[in-house]
Every structure is written in structure tokens, then in C-alpha cells.
Specification:
The protein has 482 residues and is an alpha+beta fold. It folds into two domains: 352 residues, 3-Layer(aba) Sandwich (Beta-lactamase); 99 residues. The protein is 42% helix and 15% strand. The strands form five sheets. The protein has an eight-stranded antiparallel sheet, sandwiched between helices.
Length: 482
């Protein structure tokens, strides 16, 4: 009897200390699939693939197609550009090289790239004081504001040419002053890694990072990904319904920042590694994973609306309360997002071959469903809302511009002049100024137009300029009557 009681107590103690194992019930799986289907339909992206890790359990959900020409269904083996989610892989590669003793995050950038120079307030920066960790944590002063000058440089687009385009760049702030995200920072790190290893960034990542970690469907070399015939085609949606193919520009020179390619299947393993669930990896990586999640607190956290205060870690964004590890990305034809809850051992990855989808909403809604909210819904992406608004503006203002132009012609065809009053002169001046103002706005939009821009925005502003010009001509046209 005593043995039975002891066994019973031991069982209670054992069960009491176990981490609860979460299993997706059928209602949750159905709700997630419905959410994924709804997100793909409403966003009008061609395809979407989701991987979910909850403890030891892995699930995949997909909707749509990988290519509008072949109509191959999207699934967990489809390959997608990871966009800025690539940075976590690059950062791990950098930490790996430091662990190998080939570099230190405290190294001056001048040691590795002596030709790279920056300026601040018009004066040369002492590059001896610019460290590798400044680039890792986005505290060097290179931000998203910096124009891409690679297109102005002769020769092929390579990692070398991308970094050379930053020579003599004017920093937005002094190195180490604050955190301000700038995707080009990781191109610099990629070139450092290539120089240190004596091999290309692509081959180093595939041979020494991806394959040892068991990521057999993850590629830094685009040619290798294409050879599998599983690579999705990227698309851009404009004017609500128009989808056009978008090949990624500069992928050769920006792989470390945003052009690593992977599948939902590999991303599930990657999340398992990040959460400490997958342990069949080389021992050298085991301490590097939690280290990559430590936010850089040498500078103040950055406040982002809707997310709160954030720190940047090694390729990951960390909430101030450290409850989440996450990162999203947008390439011209792809959108991605990875969301990890370390304490709950939950990971969610969303991959798509269209930029119009709100990947954050998909991940957050899935998290809600996992938490018991089966009614969680997809919220439309702000860029898609803008596209709808500018499409309506294009059509509406375009029609109004044509009408005012037609009315002006009719006025001009009448016989008797009407007097030009002071009121009309004032109206002519006002509408002329308004037309000029919107004309300047259109010119600025044209100057900064890129593959990330909305065509509907450009046409909407153009329609507005034409409308203002037509109204100006209508007011200025001498009125006549029979």
C-alpha cells in the first residue's frame, strides 16, 4: 500500500512539473485554414503559406498558387523570398564567425572594410570608432532614408558594389547614438563575412549555416533555389485587381538583408531551433540562438505605433517586456513575418508572393486562435487600403477633369463675352497655385518612384493635377452667352 501511495505521489509531482503540451484541435485548425483562405482572397495575393510550431507539434496551412501562369498550388515546400526575415540568418552567421574567433563584434569596420567611409554633419567620421555591432543593431546612422545609389554605378549588382555605394554616405545620426532601422547595414555585414571566410556570402551561409542546421530547403544562392523548380513568382497588386509579375531587383547585392529564400517546412524547423525545441544541431549554435534574442539596450528603445517600445537584437525585434521575438519583411513581390512566443514555445511564420497582404494581421490572428479566440479575423493591409483609395481617386478625379475640360470647350464656343471680374481673377490665382502645388507633389512622387511604390498613387495624384488644371482653365476661360 505504501508503495502505491508513493507511486501515486511521484506521478502527481511528475505531472505537476511538466510543460503542458498544446495540440491543435480540429476547430482551431479549421479556423486557421479559414483565416488563411480569407487573407489570400481579400488581399488578392496569388499565394500564402503558413507554418505553426506549438511545442513538438508542427502544422502547415496554405492557400492560392505560386505562379499565375503555371497555377501550381502553394504548399509547405514552396520556396519564397524571406525579405528582411533574412537578417536573422545573417546575424547568426556573424555570431558563428565570432564564436570561431574569426572576428569580434567590437572590431572596427576599418579593419575589415578600410575603403568604407562615412560623413556626419558634412565632416568625415572616424571609421576606427565605427564597430561591427553598430551595423548589427542598426545604430550606425545608416537608415531607410538613404537612397539606393547602386543603380548609378556601372558594372554588375554585387554585394561589393552595394556596399561601395555607401562610401561617403551622410549619416542621419552619430554612430551609437540611437537605434533607427536601415536595411543596408546588413549588406555591410555580409561583405565582412565574405572577406573573413574567403568565400562568397552565399556559399558560406549554405555550407556552414543552413546545411549544418538541417535547413535543406533554404538558399542564399538564387540559382540553387530556382533549380528546385519550387520558387514562387513575386507579384505586385495595383488598382485593386491588377496583379503583375515583379522580379526582385538587386537580389545579387542585397542577399544578406532580404533575399534569402526558404520554405514553410524549413521555417518551421528554424522556429523550432529558435525556441529550443529542435536540438539536433551542432553544439556551437546552441548558445548563439538565445544570444541572438538579446535586445541591444545600449541605446533607448524605439517607439513604434501599435507595437510599443522595441529593441533590436541580432536580426530580431524584441518587445520591451521580452514576451515576443519577431521580424517582418517586404520585398517588391513578397511579404513575410515571423512571430515567436518563447515562454509558450509557439512560433508562427507567414510567407506570401504578394506585398498587399497584412502578414502581421495573419500571424496575430493565428495567435488569437491558438489562444482560444476562434473568431479572430484578418485585417486589411494599410497599403492595400491606400491602393483602393487612390484607385477611386484616379477614376473619380479623372472623370471630373474630363468634364471640366469639356465644359471649358463649350464655354469657349459661345458668342458673347462675359466680363472678367475680380472674383474670377482671385479664383484663377487660387486654382493656379493649387495646380502648381499638386504638380510639385507629382514631380516628387515621380522622382522617388520605385518598385515599392503604388502605381495608383501616382495616377491618383496625376488625376488630381489634371482636375485642378481643368478647373483653372474653366475659371479662366472667358464666359460667353448667345
Amino acid at each position: 500500500m505504501k508503495k502505491l501511495i508513493a507511486l501515486f505521489l511521484a506521478l502527481i509531482i511528475f505531472l505537476g512539473f511538466q510543460t503542458p503540451v498544446f495540440a491543435l484541435v480540429s476547430e482551431q485548425s479549421a479556423a486557421i485554414q479559414s483565416l488563411v483562405d480569407d487573407a489570400q482572397r481579400r488581399s488578392r495575393v496569388p499565394g500564402i503559406s503558413v507554418s505553426i510550431v506549438v511545442g513538438d507539434e508542427v502544422r502547415f496551412f496554405s492557400a492560392g498558387i505560386t505562379n499565375r501562369e503555371t497555377e501550381i498550388p502553394a504548399d509547405e515546400e514552396t520556396l519564397w523570398e524571406l525579405a528582411s526575415v533574412s537578417k536573422a540568418f545573417t546575424a547568426l552567421g556573424l555570431l558563428y564567425l565570432e564564436e570561431q574567433g574569426l572576428l569580434s563584434l567590437d572590431d572596427s569596420i576599418a579593419v575589415h572594410l578600410p575603403g568604407l567611409t562615412f560623413r556626419y554633419n558634412g565632416q568625415p567620421v572616424d571609421m576606427q570608432e565605427v564597430r561591427l555591432y553598430h551595423f548589427l543593431y542598426h545604430t550606425v546612422g545608416i537608415t531607410q532614408q538613404h537612397p539606393n545609389r547602386v543603380q548609378d554605378r556601372p558594372g554588375p549588382d554585387t554585394l561589393q558594389s552595394t556596399v561601395e555605394a555607401l562610401i561617403d554616405a551622410e549619416l542621419v545620426f552619430f554612430p551609437g547614438e540611437k537605434f533607427d532601422y536601415g536595411t543596408k547595414n546588413y549588406n555591410v555585414l555580409g561583405l565582412v563575412m565574405a572577406n573573413v571566410t574567403g568565400q562568397s556570402y552565399e556559399s558560406f551561409m549554405e555550407e556552414q549555416i543552413f546545411r549544418p542546421l538541417g535547413l535543406t530547403q533554404t538558399f542564399a544562392n538564387r540559382g540553387h533555389a530556382k533549380s528546385t523548380e519550387r520558387l514562387a513568382q513575386g507579384y505586385i497588386t495595383n488598382f485593386v485587381y491588377w496583379n503583375r509579375q515583379q522580379d526582385s531587383p538587386e537580389s545579387g547585392g542585397s542577399v544578406p538583408t532580404g533575399y534569402i529564400i526558404s520554405s514553410s517546412q524549413d521555417m518551421a524547423r528554424w522556429m523550432g531551433i529558435q525556441l529550443g525545441i529542435v536540438t539536433d544541431i551542432p553544439e556551437i549554435f546552441i548558445p548563439l540562438i538565445p544570444r541572438s534574442h538579446i535586445g541591444n539596450k545600449s541605446v533607448a528603445a524605439e517607439y513604434v505605433w501599435g507595437m510599443g517600445y522595441l529593441y533590436y537584437a541580432a536580426g530580431w525585434i524584441i518587445r520591451q517586456d521580452e514576451s515576443r521575438v519577431e521580424h517582418g519583411g517586404n520585398n517588391p513581390g513578397f511579404a513575410t513575418y515571423v512571430l515567436l512566443f518563447p515562454e509558450e514555445q509557439i512560433g508562427i511564420t507567414v510567407l506570401s508572393n504578394g506585398r498587399a497582404i497584412n502578414t502581421v494581421s495573419v500571424a496575430e490572428s493565428i495567435a488569437g486562435i491558438l489562444g482560444g479566440d476562434l473568431g479572430a479575423r484578418y485585417s486589411m493591409f494599410i497599403a492595400q487600403i491606400f491602393d483602393i483609395v487612390f484607385t477611386v481617386v484616379t477614376v473619380l478625379f479623372g472623370v471630373l477633369a474630363a468634364l471640366f475640360f469639356f465644359w471649358s470647350l463649350r464655354r469657349k464656343s459661345q458668342n458673347k463675352k462675359l466680363p472678367i471680374t475680380k472674383k474670377r481673377i482671385v479664383l484663377i490665382l487660387i486654382w493656379s497655385v493649387v495646380t502648381l502645388a499638386f504638380g510639385v507633389l507629382m514631380a516628387l512622387d515621380l522622382i522617388h518612384f520605385s518598385v515599392f511604390s503604388l502605381y495608383s498613387q501616382l495616377t491618383g495624384i496625376t488625376a488630381l493635377v489634371l482636375l485642378c488644371a481643368s478647373i483653372t482653365w474653366f475659371v479662366a476661360t472667358p464666359g460667353r452667352s448667345k
